[in-house]
Amino acid sequence: MPKTNSPLGKQQVRRQAQRLRESVDWDPQRALGKRESAAEQWASLEQSDRQGNAYAKAAGCPDCVQAQAEIGDPTGLCEKHLQAAMGLEEAE
Ligand SMILES: [Zn+2]
After folding, report:
1. Could you give the number of structural domains in the chain?
2. Which residue range(s) make up the domain with 86?
3. Among 7, 12, 34, 52, which is disulfide-ready with 46 (CB 3.0 to 4.6 Å)?
4. pLDDT tens, 66-86?
């Protein structure tokens, strides 16, 4: 049975991020910082329940953070949450 490649599994990271979201008064827009344009984009996205839900769940996702850094778009999503936002897949 092969060992997992990464010492810190994605599931574990995601679980810790989820715990963080649940333990504090988590606000995706506040978590984005002072970038108003990003907050505005998120606010408009959240007018759609499904997308808003996906984005709320994506907040704090380390994969999404990495995707945002890579593409230079504060509203970027990782593949999983992008699909969730498009309604292709339920976000965890
Ligand atoms: Zn994500």
Report:
1. 1
2. 37-92
3. 52
4. 999 999 988 889 999 888 888
